[in-house]
Design goal:
204 residues; alpha+beta; seven-stranded antiparallel sheet; two-stranded antiparallel sheet; 3 helices; 33% strand
Length: 204
Amino acid sequence: MAVPRTETAISSVRPRRELRPALALFAVVAACLAVAGCGSSSTTPAGFAWVKASATPAGWHQVRIPAGDAISFPPGWRPIRTDHGTASRALLGGHGQFVGYLNLTPSVPQEKLRTWARFRVDHNGDENDTHVRALASGRGLHFAGGQGACVRDGYMTESSAHFIEIACLIVGQHRSVVGVGAAPPEAWHQVSAQLERALASIRT
């Protein structure tokens, strides 16, 4: 689907190929996430222990956006068309369907650490997503480039594609950036660890 090129849309670029996993499957995966300890929103880092400085795995590649921020991604993830000033990578299945998605983009002034989780969920609704549900949130997170806040949520796009995403706002000394990792519910357990490792690699 096309993404409106508005200021507040640049941090929520959506995968462009249509996926149609069943709504029931989405609900099952969301329930599993809740059981795993990510079903409640909190201002503590609980559920975000993966946010830690660590060496980039061998074979991973780094991409840098014009603002200077960088993210690393696993081998086999390919560039996809995205808005100017941002970077996106995707893992595609055998029929061209999205299995995983990563995006890095500069933040906009409305994006604040203190209100990040609520802002992101509301923003997804503003982008005409439906069934938007916050699964977990944390702030006071320590990224290599600065302080961060993250939210894990689920939503359905206008094209009836379902996704689970992790969206993180990272505020560095000179600028801030938003990193997003997403996958359809049926692929979440396959790629979630890679999404987390990629988001933890962000440098501002």
